[in-house]
């Protein structure tokens, strides 16, 4: 066998194999590789977009939390102010009610004192008249008069 013929035959077979590979095998492989590269690039882009969205959402959450804390603190402050105002109002109402009750009790006590004085005056006047009657009925005697006065003192 001739080495040149063998070499020529091998070159022809290699060229046919290369042409067949380039024509029928290479395009689907390149297409698959390109699709895979595109999927990887899309996945990386989506991951980067997701990371950016996550950071943005995190910033929004932090801002919302800060606003919620501020609003909560403000509401607590307002509630404390309202509670103090209501407490003061209740205290003032209680003081006014106590003053009214005290005034009513003083007025009632004064009225009762006036009634007692009037009743005592009536009793003293009745006793004085009774004592004068008894003195006038008896004879005029200092000893008897002193005795009657002592009895009146005991009755008073």
From TrEMBL:
- Gene that specifies this protein: atpF
Q: Does the keyword Cell membrane apply?
A: yes
Gene Ontology molecular function: proton-transporting ATP synthase activity, rotational mechanism; proton-transporting ATPase activity, rotational mechanism
Q: What's this protein's name?
A: ATP synthase subunit b
Q: Which residues cross the membrane?
A: 6-26
Its family remark reads: Belongs to the ATPase B chain family.
This protein's GO cellular component annotations are: endomembrane system; plasma membrane; proton-transporting ATP synthase complex
Q: Where in the cell is it found?
A: Cell membrane; Endomembrane system
Query: Its biological function?
Result: F(1)F(0) ATP synthase produces ATP from ADP in the presence of a proton or sodium gradient. F-type ATPases consist of two structural domains, F(1) containing the extramembraneous catalytic core and F(0) containing the membrane proton channel, linked together by a central stalk and a peripheral stalk. During catalysis, ATP synthesis in the catalytic domain of F(1) is coupled via a rotary mechanism of the central stalk subunits to proton translocation.
Membrane topology of the entry = Single-pass membrane protein
Q: Which HAMAP family match?
A: ATP_synth_b_bprime
| Signal peptide (residue range) | none
């Amino acid at each position: 066998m001739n080495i040149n013929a063998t070499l020529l035959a091998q070159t022809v077979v290699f060229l046919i194999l290369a042409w067949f590979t380039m024509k029928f095998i290479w395009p689907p492989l390149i297409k698959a590789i390109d699709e895979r590269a595109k999927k990887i690039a899309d996945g990386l882009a989506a991951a980067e977009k997701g990371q950016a969205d996550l950071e943005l959402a995190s910033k929004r959450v932090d801002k919302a939390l800060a606003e919620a804390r501020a609003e909560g603190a403000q509401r607590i402050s307002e509630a404390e102010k309202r509670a103090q105002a209501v407490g003061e109002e209740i205290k003032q109402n209680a003081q006014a009610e106590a003053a009214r009750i005290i005034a009513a009790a003083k007025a009632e006590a004064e009225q009762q004192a006036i009634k007692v004085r009037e009743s005592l005056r009536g009793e003293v006047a009745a006793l004085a008249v009774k004592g004068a009657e008894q003195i006038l009925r008896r004879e005029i005697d200092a000893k008897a008069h002193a005795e009657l006065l002592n009895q009146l003192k005991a009755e008073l």
